[in-house]
Amino acid sequence: LQVVESGGGLVQPGGSLRLSCAAPGFSLDYYGVGWFRQAPGKERERVSCISSSGGSNRYADSVKGRFTISRDSAGTTVYLQMNSLKPEDTAVYYCSLRPRYLDNPLYWGQGTQVTVSS
Fold it and tell me: Helix or strand or coil: residue 90?
């Protein structure tokens, strides 16, 4: 199983980006999905996560009200809509998959760079 993130890039402060997470050939319906980020010199932090059913989601305090996590109806993609981006959101963003029977992520993507700068 390979996890693939996309949608990163360079955006000005106040702008928006939408990140996508998929595992080609696999349904994401059986996994909790998390978005993490790591900025240079900082530890990796969880930004948001969504349950396998899609009925529960969580956000870091630093992104509440600005980021939204969601699943598509086909069960193939999880999105992270990022609005009102700030320079401190600059980081490599990683998608992770957590099987229902585990407490921690099992699969990780390679990451996508998000840079917020004028």
Answer: coil
